[in-house]
Amino acid sequence: MVERAEAKQISAESTFAVDLTTMEQLHEAIDSIAEHAHQRLLRDGRGARTITVKLKKSDMSTLTRSATMPYPTTDAGALFTVARRLLPDPLQIGPIRLLGVGFSGLSDIRQESLFADSDLTQETAAAHYVETPGAVVPAAHDATMWRVGDDVAHPELGHGWVQGAGHGVVTVRFETRGSGPGSARTFPVDTGDISNASPLDSLDWPDYIGQLSVEGSAGASAPTVDDVGDR
């Protein structure tokens, strides 16, 4: 008998009867898909370093975005938040027909919680983001290139991410793990009010630790999705 090879990726995806056209719809959809993939990851027993979001648009073209964490982990909070951060705005790329979440870079050696390592610096903690084929919009009238998904900071509004850029303006959605879905603001592309920030600043590590201590180890049941698989 030939033993089954270990999966290189664990994933879940769903095809929608009606195309998703808003960030709110994508956020709602990705939570259940990511949770189902996470349940499979826990059954596998390994941690994941790379989180991949796959989107198929209504024209059947496919966009894949991924982020690599500094350590393999099974921490649902970290994995889910990065997956949400990888979502592009349908207003920028078009209606979404299919959405998938995959975990790869699987390893038996894992960091159970990124919060435990107090020595992490921004340089080592920041996830490395990659987009294929890429939805990069040059910032007009300025040498800066704002990319969809870039993390930024505002002195009054706090942490946010670039939702869209072009035609001389940049739109930023200000939200973190603790704040939940936030509001979007549009600035001139050459504004000095926003600056680059670390992706992991959005995770609100201290607040999340407190939440975990209250919630304990209570789990949630896995939702149903159309297609799941280990590869």
TrEMBL record:
InterPro entries: DNA_pol_Y-fam_lit_finger_sf, DNA_pol_Y-fam_little_finger, DNA_polymerase-Y
DNA polymerase Y-family little finger domain residues: 8-112
Stored Pfam families: IMS_C
Nucleotidyltransferase keyword on record: yes
EC numbers on record: 2.7.7.7
Oligomeric form and interacting partners: Monomer.
Protein name per its UniProtKB record: DNA polymerase IV
Taxonomic classification: Bacteria, Bacillati, Actinomycetota, Actinomycetes, Mycobacteriales
